[in-house]
Amino acid sequence: MPSLAHRLGTTGAVMALAASGLLFGAASPASAATSCYGPTCNGLNPANTVCANDARTIDTTWTQVELRYSPTCRAAWGRRVGGINGGTDTIWVENSNGKAYSVDVPSNASGNYFTAMVDDKGLWARACDNLGSDGGYNCTSKY
Prior knowledge:
This is DUF2690 domain-containing protein. The chain is an alpha+beta fold. About 20% of the residues lie in helices and about 30% in strands. The chain has one helix at about 5-30; strands at about 55-60, 65-70, 75-80, 90-95, 100-105, 110-115, 120, 125-130, 135-140. Strand 2 (about 65-70) and strand 3 form a beta hairpin. It is globular.
């Protein structure tokens, strides 16, 4: 007959294995969950969601503004990679439902600047930037 210490040790090992299996099993579904989808993404920062994880660049303007899209979240946003030389620039993203979000890129800035997200589920979206004081603007294709 096994000793009490042996039985407790075996029971403890089985419980530890069961607990670690529960913890690992619970982690997988949580990491696969999205933090928003379609219209619930409106106005959210893509860096604070899982939307940036599968994002891809759909189109880029000649002024280096990108339209970014997440198939998991069905959301889009505008991004400028790198800075600008000269005056302040404003980039924005808009969708066919009338939602639009913008961000100002300061003069001689570096790094990446991006807008909040817009719903792109069953809609089109595009990213744009202004071309200075003449009031013109430059946009990506609609997606």
